[in-house]
């Protein structure tokens, strides 16, 4: 309940200020959408007088609201307004001095407001033509490329594969927009770290353009020795006898770039010849995706121009920071600075004003070399208080964000944007079918790519066994994916000795049935749950090392199926599933990986569709979470109505890994049936050669005993160590 303090109106808009009692259960913030009513809402009671209200300003115990009470807007046409008795009653209520009202929070409109402001700012962006025309044909980057120091470039080349280097080089070209597509397991985050290393420690190539439009290196004057510099400093500073800045900068002349060994915001001097400081804003659509990058930067640091690792000054802005990155979160850094200030003010027992907090936030932002933020939060007021803008914006999971959200960090006035993502993995989540139909769900990455804008794709994958990689590479990436060195050997596991636990298997549940609980938009399939749990039980019984949530995942597109899996797991094994197995939706597994993934498709009917299981992007994510084995459970007759699922079933059939399963499901995992599915190991080619040419290596009757004492018996000469 609240009390009306005052109210003004202009052009159909009313601006009431209300006073309310603080409620710990329901906080109200700026840009929240409220429902303001004369009577309190109840389960069976809807008041006669109510209207929407937007929170324009919030103080300690009062809210300034904005309401449109001229009439009801018809549809989305703001010119069509119909009169409303209900809104007329609300106008009357707001004219009564100190009247009582009730408020109920609907949702926050902060994200929508920020996206709207970002869209309005396009006209002022230096690369607006790229966004509007989706073309780089009019961009001339001649002479603008970044120059990477030799030692650092050698390190980058040694630690990245060819497609990753291609992406980094594309970024160094300084084109306004650089698109990098990262299929599953191709080292997308590693590439982002390589970009950070290169950009943070590079300088723009200094060139001039003659009339023939050919770039030429400009001659630089000889750099003075320290003694010569000291002489000129003394001439310029006769009273002090030394340059006042000398005590604050490295002796080699660095002009203000101070990386830190930790994140305590204390600069340390490093040997550096750079004269140019770049500031980077790294964004992602979600907190979890953002913290993944922050954690990698904290663990590995970045490398300077001499290829030495250090921890740069970074700050993570926004809500819900994971505890592993708490040390660099804005709130934590502000509290640390405040603790120092409060120590100085301890005698006066003074508090810290809100304006002091704002100035501390601004100073932390200005000092940071890399700032991490979600897309939405990059439009918050804190960024408007910075003294310096960002040169580079890197957006991870860019294909998982709607285009207006992607525009939010660009409004900071950056010079170059990196969009890193994969349009054939999970799309942005759009609840409204109307918005989805009108194109709101299309990402900027996907639109630019669809318009022919050049995209660099990472092609070497290091996650999956080749048998898992084979289908998504052919189906979604034009057969472009290739395996990294030793991937097959590194993903080979003991359970591959059974055909039903090979890297890629499909289990056709012949008599499974889907169901939709009343009042729910989700689906379940109890038969697939039963079979999936029996499969898990047999796997961990034979291979106890799999009894860990870090090793095995059970995935389903539907949240109710996930809920049923967790419930049945508790009933069957008597322990919480999260302790031994990770059970989640496809969306919950984006960007993650496990040794074994059991994927439950759920949909099974004679004549119905397969719903959003038909979204090939969810299919791609679901089957590429596994490193060594992906075990798909579904109904072939139902899924084959979709083109991509039909191709998946055909691939399983050609690979001799399609299994028909009928009740009772326990019979499928009986010892006798499993024994019949043991993989026959063919004699090793080398063993055959040993038998055939035994006399070459030693005694023909005993080829395992070589004549040469240095022969190690494994096909090489040496001491039998690991390197052999």
Describe the SSE topology:
Blueprint: E1 2-10, E2 13-20, E3 32-37, E4 50-58, E5 62-68, E6 72-74, E7 77-82, H1 85-95, E8 100-108, H2 110-120, H3 128-133, E9 146-147, H4 150-158, H5 162-172, E10 177-181, H6 188-200, E11 203-204, E12 207-209, E13 215-217, H7 226-236, E14 280-284, H8 287-300, E15 302-303, E16 309-310, E17 314-317, H9 330-344, H10 354-367, E18 370-374, E19 392-396, H11 403-410, E20 416-421, H12 433-437, H13 444-450, E21 455-457, E22 460-461, H14 466-476, E23 482-483, H15 487-490, E24 504-509, H16 526-542, E25 552-556, H17 559-573, E26 582-585, E27 594-600, H18 616-623, E28 626-634, H19 636-639, H20 643-654, E29 658-661, H21 671-676, H22 685-692, H23 694-697, E30 698-699, E31 702-706
Parallel strand pairs: 10-20, 10-21, 14-18, 14-19, 17-18, 19-20, 22-23, 24-28, 24-29, 25-26, 25-27, 27-28
Antiparallel strand pairs: 1-2, 1-8, 2-5, 3-4, 3-8, 4-5, 6-7, 9-11, 12-13, 15-16, 30-31
Helix pairs in contact: 2-11, 5-6, 9-10, 16-17
């Amino acid at each position: 309940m609240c009390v009306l303090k005052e109210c003004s109106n202009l052009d159909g808009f009313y601006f009431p200020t209300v006073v309310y009692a603080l409620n710990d259960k329901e906080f109200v913030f700026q840009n929240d959408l409220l429902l303001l009513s004369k009577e309190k809402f109840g389960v069976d009671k809807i008041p006669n007088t109510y209207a929407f209200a937007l929170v324009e300003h919030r103080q300690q115990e009062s809210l300034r609201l904005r309401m449109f009470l001229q009439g009801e807007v018809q549809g989305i046409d703001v010119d069509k307004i119909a009169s409303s008795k209900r809104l007329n009653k609300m106008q009357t209520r707001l004219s009564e001095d100190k009247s009582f009202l009730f408020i109920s929070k609907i949702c926050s409109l902060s994200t929508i407001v920020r996206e709207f402001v970002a869209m309005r700012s396009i006209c002022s962006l230096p690369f607006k033509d790229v966004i509007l025309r989706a073309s780089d044909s009019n961009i001339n980057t001649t002479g603008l490329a970044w120059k990477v120091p030799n030692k650092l470039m050698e390190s980058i080349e040694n630690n990245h594969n060819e497609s990753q280097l291609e992406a980094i080089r594309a970024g160094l070209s300084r084109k306004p927009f650089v698109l990098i597509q990262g299929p599953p397991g191709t080292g997308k985050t590693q590439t982002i770290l390589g970009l950070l290393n290169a950009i943070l420690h590079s300088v723009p190539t200094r060139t001039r353009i003659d009339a023939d439009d050919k770039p030429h290196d400009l001659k630089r004057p000889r750099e003075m020795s320290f003694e010569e510099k000291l002489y000129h400093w003394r001439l310029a500073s006769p009273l002090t006898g030394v340059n006042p800045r000398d005590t604050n900068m490295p002796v080699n002349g660095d002009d203000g770039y101070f990386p830190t060994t930790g994140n305590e915001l204390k600069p340390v001097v490093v040997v550096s010849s750079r004269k140019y400081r770049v500031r980077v804003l790294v964004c992602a659509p979600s907190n979890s995706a953002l913290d993944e990058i922050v954690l990698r930067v904290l663990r590995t640091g970045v490398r300077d121009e001499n290829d030495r690792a250090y921890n740069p000054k970074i700050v993570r802005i926004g809500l819900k920071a994971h505890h592993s990155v708490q040390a660099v979160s804005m709130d934590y850094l502000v509290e640390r600075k405040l603790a120092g200030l409060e120590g100085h003010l301890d005698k006066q027992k003074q508090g810290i004003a809100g304006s002091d907090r704002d100035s501390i936030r601004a100073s932390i932002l200005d000092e940071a070399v890399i700032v991490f933020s979600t897309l939405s939060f990059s439009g918050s007021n804190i960024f408007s208080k910075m003294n310096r803008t960002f040169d580079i914006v890197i957006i991870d999971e860019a294909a998982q964000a709607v285009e207006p959200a992607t525009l939010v960090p660009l409004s900071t006035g950056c010079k170059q944007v990196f969009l890193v993502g994969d349009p054939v993995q999970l799309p942005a989540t759009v609840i409204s079918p109307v918005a989805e139909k009108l194109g709101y769900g299309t990402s900027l990455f996907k639109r630019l790519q669809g318009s022919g804008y050049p995209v660099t794709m990472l092609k070497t994958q290091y996650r999956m066994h080749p048998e898992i990689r084979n289908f998504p590479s052919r189906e979604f990436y034009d057969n472009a994916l290739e395996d990294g060195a030793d991937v097959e050997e590194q993903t080979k596991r003991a359970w591959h000795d059974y055909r039903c636990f090979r890297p890629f298997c499909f289990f056709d549940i012949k008599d499974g049935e889907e169901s939709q609980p009343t009042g729910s938009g989700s689906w379940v399939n109890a038969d697939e749950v039963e079979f999936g749990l029996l499969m898990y039980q047999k796997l961990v019984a034979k291979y106890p090392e799999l009894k860990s949530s870090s090793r095995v995942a059970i995935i389903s597109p539907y949240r109710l199926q996930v809920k049923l899996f967790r419930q049945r797991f508790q009933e069957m094994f008597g322990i919480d599933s999260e302790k031994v197995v990770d059970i989640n939706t496809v969306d919950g597994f984006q960007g993650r990986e496990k040794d074994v993934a059991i994927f439950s498709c759920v949909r099974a009917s004679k004549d119905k569709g397969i719903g959003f299981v038909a979204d090939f992007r969810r299919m791609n994510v679901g089957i590429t979470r596994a490193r060594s084995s992906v075990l798909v459970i579904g109904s072939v007759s139902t899924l084959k109505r979709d083109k991509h699922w039909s191709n998946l079933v055909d691939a399983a059939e050609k690979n001799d890994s399609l299994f028909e399963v009928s009740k009772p499901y326990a019979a499928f995992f009986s010892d006798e049936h499993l024994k019949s599915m043991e993989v026959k190991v063919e004699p090793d080619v080398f063993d055959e050669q040993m038998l055939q040419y035994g006399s070459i290596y030693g005694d023909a009757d005993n080829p395992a005993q070589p004549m040469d004492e240095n022969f190690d018996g494994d096909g090489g000469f040496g001491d039998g160590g690991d390197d052999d």
